[in-house]
Each structure stands twice: as structure tokens, then as C-alpha cells.
Specification:
The structure is a single chain. It is globular, with a radius of gyration of 16 Å. It has an eight-stranded mixed beta sheet with strand order 1-4-3-2-5-6-8-7. It has one domain: Vaccinia Virus protein VP39 (Rossmann fold), CATH 3.40.50.150. The chain is built from eight helices and eight strands. Helix content is about 35%, strand content about 25%. It has about 200 residues and is an alpha/beta fold. The protein starts with a helix and ends with a strand. The structure holds S-adenosylmethionine (SAM). The site of S-adenosylmethionine has 19 residues, from strand 3, helix 5 and helix 8.
Length: about 200
């Protein structure tokens, strides 16, 4: 197998480089300890991942982010802090949830401030659709959860309408003890409303 320079950097151990993308990633092999896995979809520069993995050392945290610079920033910070319960994967959210996470393996998904693609002609680029909910449901373990936060009222209303009632129950928000994300801080600073949704796997 070809080794890229980036894979030899000292912080490379904090990034997941799957041997194949044709089968799910063996999560037991990428984390130091077997413990509940939380996945941050679109983890950006990693503020949430870094702080959550410090606050909850008895959980494993996997970030999924497609932008190279943001993945590098995350893994550099994780390496400096020696966070053995944090890993980041540079990949598309959609493909990762559908094909790279073993069925029944995830305790909680976080989707924080997904790109809203406000123009109508761009809306098919949105991450949340019916197939997304189905894939999340499959990847979640029994009683697993999906937490969504957005500043975008129309996207939030659309997401709520799309939730398949047979797959998820709506639950009270309990996430205030979790760290905030980069974007959450920006919107809070501007005193803009933030919409939150907590969904529990139904069966
Ligand atoms: C608006 S930012 C929010 C970042 C972070 N969750 C936060 O709340 O600060 C959305 C992030 O998701 C990433 N992203 C958007 N679509 C993605 C996709 N399909 N696959 C992987 N990453 C994606 C973007 O690169 C960006 O870093």
C-alpha cells in the first residue's frame, strides 16, 4: 500500500485512513478503548470534537469532515493534547453514514449547523433527506440518538417534516452540557436563534 507523506506526520495517528471504502471501518481498531461512539458530522475545525473528547473521556468521538485544512487542524490539536478517544475522517458525510459505519455501532450522531444551501436550486445538496435518516437509523445502536442544531429556520422546518415517524421519536433537548461548536459561538455572539432537535432511534 502506498503511504502518503501526510500519513507519516506525527499527528496522522489521529486521522482515519480506511484500507478500503467498500466495507465499514472497524471502529474497534481505530480507537484505543471500546466505549460508546459519538460521530460529529461536518466537524469543521474540530472545536466541538476536541472539547467533547476531553469532557467525556469514557466516550469515543469520530469527526467526519471533507475539507483538508479543517481535518489537519483537528488532528494537530488532538495530537498536541494526546486525545486517544478522538479520530477524524476526511470524507463525505453521506457516504460515511451509509457505507463506512458498521450497522448498530453508533451511540449518538451530532449534526451541527449543516450547510443550509438556501437557494432553491442548490437544496438538493443538503445533507438531510429521507435516505440520510434511514442511514443514520441503521448505523445507530438500539436507543441511539441523532442531535441536530441549525440557525436556519427554513431548513429546520424542512428537517422536522422529513423525520420518519416510524424510525425516530422526538425527545426533549438535553444537550446543554455538551461543548458548543465554532458556528454555534458565532451565532450566539450575534444573538441569533438556534434551533435544536433530539431524535431517539425508535426500534
Ligand atoms: C457550517 S460548517 C459547521 C461546522 C461545525 N459543525 C460547527 O458547528 O462549527 C459545516 C461543515 O460541514 C462540512 N461539510 C459540509 N458538507 C459536507 C459533506 N457532505 N461531507 C463532509 N463534510 C461536509 C463543511 O466543510 C464544514 O466544515
Amino acid at each position: 500500500m502506498q503511504i502518503f507523506t501526510d500519513e507519516r506526520a506525527p499527528d496522522a495517528a489521529f486521522e482515519v485512513f480506511p484500507d478500503t471504502i467498500l466495507t465499514p471501518i472497524p471502529l474497534g481498531e481505530i480507537f484505543a478503548r471500546p466505549q460508546p461512539v459519538e460521530v460529529d458530522l461536518g466537524s469543521g475545525s474540530g472545536q466541538f470534537l476536541i472539547e467533547a473528547s476531553q469532557r467525556y473521556p469514557d466516550h469515543n468521538f469520530l469527526g467526519v469532515e471533507r475539507l483538508l485544512g479543517r481535518v489537519r487542524k483537528t488532528r494537530r490539536r488532538a495530537w498536541k493534547l494526546g486525545l486517544q478517544n478522538l479520530r477524524v475522517l476526511r470524507f463525505e458525510i453521506d457516504y460515511t453514514v451509509r457505507y463506512l459505519l458498521p450497522p448498530g455501532s453508533i451511540w449518538r450522531f451530532h449534526l451541527s449547523f449543516p450547510d443550509p444551501w438556501p437557494k432553491r436550486r442548490h437544496q438538493r445538496r443538503r445533507v438531510v433527506d429521507q435516505a440520510f435518516f434511514e442511514a443514520v437509523h441503521t448505523a445507530l445502536q438500539t436507543r441511539g440518538e441523532l442531535w441536530i442544531k441549525t440557525d436556519h429556520a427554513e431548513y429546520f422546518a424542512t428537517i422536522r417534516k422529513l423525520v420518519p415517524q416510524a424510525l425516530f421519536h422526538l425527545a426533549e433537548w438535553v444537550g446543554d452540557d455538551y461543548p458548543s461548536t465554532d458556528f454555534e459561538d458565532l451565532f450566539a455572539l450575534k444573538q441569533l436563534p438556534i434551533y435544536r432537535l433530539r431524535l431517539l432511534k425508535a426500534n
